[in-house]
Amino acid sequence: MSLRTHPVLTVGPYLLLAALTVITAAVDGPRGLWLCALLAAWILGAFTLYEAPPEVFVTGVVVLNMALVIKYPWFGCFTPAGYLYAFHLLPWPRELAGVAAVAVVAGTAQATGVDKSTLLGILAYGGVLAANVLPMCAFGWSAKRSADTTRRLQESLAANAVLDERQRMAREIHDTLAQGLTGIITQLEAASHTTSKDEWQRHVDLATGLARESLTEARRSVDALRPEPLETAQLSAALDTVASRWSAVHGIPVQVTTTGSVRPLSSSAETALLRTAQEALANVAKHAKATRVGVTLSFMDRSVVLDVRDDGSGFDPGVRSVGFGLESMRQRVEELAGTLQVESSPGSGTAISASVVA
Asked: Is the N end or the C end of the chain the one with fewer CB atoms within 10 Å?
């Protein structure tokens, strides 16, 4: 809805002007109605019909309102409409000047009984004007600062939302496309080095299956849907499925164990822990040269802990990694106020532990 058609700025002032016109007719007969009609015509023509520049329109309202106040002090009651016009129509800093002008009209109405022919009267009149102008200008200034703060906050929230979505998409691409492509390359390379037709076909079939799974997961990531293994099973069963597929592709046995009293988890917690397990297994395949892997899901009183351990070559956690995997896992878990711990040393395997409150 345009400001030019907003009920507060159109219907409201007319109702107020109509009430004051009735009072004027009752007190002074028809003699003052021409000024009331002139103000009504100005609002109708300059504001509603012809959409005069805001500065011109507000100036006309202030001048006509002042003329009515000088003749009929009760038209000081029309100044709320003037404030509405100034606040809603004028750009900053002209808004402040418009508010001050309307406040002068309001102060003039309030100082009707003050004798302005004496120095004391002039000072009193100035005091009344100041009592109107200063608070209203201060209010306008405060409102502007509040609006600026709100706008900056909204811009900041929007920027953070964009950043969060970029990080989410980066994680999803890494956890779906990147891992899938790595597995496909591994299988195709293995197929190119085998002389057995059966082995060649097995590797090609695995690569094809990985391609299909990766495409499905990529589409689900774009639509912000849950990973496919969690659609039909709880987390413990989904981990079994993921581990079995991974073991079939890489030829490394995986033992999945669930301890404690199994209970439902939030969708975000299940997704974070499943993606953490997938990334940990992907790292084992790429770097660990392990012969076996253990995955444990532990349901404790106030938390759920996922542990992924391997007997591979290990690494020094103190050396900054150039990859995105560990950072992706950490971001997912910390978004749920959880913790991620990595224990490893060269030659001693690696243990990754992700804990979330549940």
From this structure: N
Provide the pLDDT for residue 304.
94
What lies within 8 Å, CB to CB, of 149 at 6+ separation is none
Cα 185 from Cα 191, distance rounded (Å): 10
Identity (one letter) of the amino acid at 5?
A: T
Q: What are the tokens at 152? A: 């900056």
- The larger pLDDT score, comparing residue 48 to residue 353, is at 353
Q: Hey, what's the torsion of the CAs at 331, 335, 338, 339, to 10 degrees?
A: 20
**First and final C-alpha spacing in the chain:** 46
* CA 239/CA 220 separation, integer angstroms: 18
The distance between the two most distant Cα atoms of the chain, rounded to a whole number of Å, is 115
Q: Token match 């998409």: residue?
A: 169
Cβ atoms of residues 203 and 194 within 8 Å = yes
Which of 3-12, 227-236, 287-296 has the weakest average pLDDT?
3-12
Given a contact cutoff of 8 angstroms between Cβ atoms, the answer to whether 228 and 216 are in contact is yes
Q: Give DSSP secondary structure letters for 118-135.
A: SHHHHHHHHHHHHHHHHH
According to DSSP H, which parts of the chain are helical?
7-28, 33-42, 54-71, 79-89, 94-110, 119-173, 179-192, 197-222, 235-250, 267-283, 325-334
Q: What are phi and psi of 312, to 5 degrees?
A: -80, -160
Helices 197-222, 235-250: axis angle to 10 degrees equals 140
pLDDT at 1 over 50: no
- The CA distances from residue 63 to 60, 73, 83, 98, 245, in Å, are 5, 14, 14, 11, 81
Closest CA to 90 of 50, 133, 130, 61: 61
Q: Return the minimum-mean-pLDDT range out of 159-173, 247-261, 315-329.
A: 159-173
Q: Calculate mean pLDDT across residues 315-321.
A: 76
pLDDT band at 336 (very low <50, low <70, confident <90, very high): confident
Between CA 127 and CA 29 the distance in angstroms is: 33
Percent of the chain with pLDDT over 70: 87
Q: What is the CA radius of gyration of the chain?
A: 37
Would the pLDDT of 322 be above 50? no
